[in-house]
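Recap from last week: sequence in, structure out.
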Amino acid sequence: MANKYITTTLPYVNADPHIGAAYELVEADAIARYWRLMGHEVFFNTGTDEHGQKIARKADEKGQSRQEYVDYYAGEFERLKDALNLSYDNFIRTTDPHHIEAAQEIWRVCDAKGDIYKKKYRGLYCVGCESFKTESDLVDGKCPDHNVEPEKVEEENYFFKLSNYQTYLEEYLSQDGIILPEWRRQEALNFVKKGLEDFSISREKSRLDWGVPVPGDESQVMYVWFDALTNYISTLGWPEEGGSFEKFWNNGEVVQVAGKDQVRFQSIMWQAMLRSAGIKAGDKFVYHGFINSGGQKMSKSIGNTISPYELVEKYGTEATRYLLLRHVHPFDDTDITWERLDEWYTANLVNGIGNLVSRVMKMAETHLDTPVKVVDEPLEESFIKLLEAYRFDQALDTIFLHVGKGDEYIQQTEPFKLIKSDSDEDVTKAKEIIENLVTHVYRLTGYLKPFMPETSKAIQEAVKEKKKPENLFNRLES
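Predicted structure tokens:
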């Protein structure tokens, strides 16, 4: 068995958690749970990104201290652990003292390598993105992600020599399978081949005072991305050698899940920083698309946003995990609406697995003398391959294909009729069919564990107790 490390990106705490963040969390959680089922040792990391100009401005607008502001929103993200039944091993905040020390240490190491220098800079800065933009990045003079004109900024900043890592990054990104989906790898590689420019990694403290101080220069604070990216190793105890860092980073497989807008930051900038610091690169990156609603990007102004807490309140934790993992595409953009969510919930959970388990266990409870003897079986190779390819949607399709087969078997054999026969032979046959169905239902639980762990547990307990469980999924109120 192997050591496995999985991390999400850190959500930026300038607003309440959104459905995209929830998807990334349950995606990483499903991977972590699957790895643990396979016997691997796992470290699952997530947390919150809490510095930068955007947060400083939001806190000032609310009349709050910056720390008070980020404490509130970090708490909103921490609440997702219970709401989504997440199994992460650490929740790191970039305002944590150890993280700040680690961010300053990676700065020192990269500086000692000769990869940091100071120069005057004039550019277009988007506060929403917390990054400088070139004219080619803009659409009609505006940032395409935030639909605002960037601010013209002129100041003296520190820069990281990304250009030093042109050849290295081309070689690194030429490895098959290092990024999923494949077209994101090509996107990253093509970006690097066009030529890399050094990027600013600090801001003048007079303009931005909410950030990690630059070592040796009190007039500057770190650019939020340089600070935040370091969380992936500070969470493991770096810069201390040994311990979790040695076990899960140096001697483990390092997997990062992120949104498609993170490719440059995670697979290019961060990998160059690691190379500069003499630290092993990431092993795999899995980039998901965006979640839209009704054909439009989710926006508070449009009124089409969907909160993960709203999902849990309406459907419950297990169903929310199911809806996200089966019906959000792992790589492409996905469009969802409340109407579609209702349809999926009712058809697949209430009328699907919920109904099957209820029917089977009611027959078992009524007609079998003792619980069916069941054993845990290894997962099918085809199912494992889907999970190894991060195709959660297709893996869940396979599970629900077997749910459908259970329903078909009931319709074809009609044990509920045979059991009422005057023939002992028919009754014996009916009991055999019911036992087969109980075994079939129990077998499903092994496949459900990474996705719907509490549902899996409830079905297993029902089988072992020979008892119809409480409704796994309640019908929606009309």
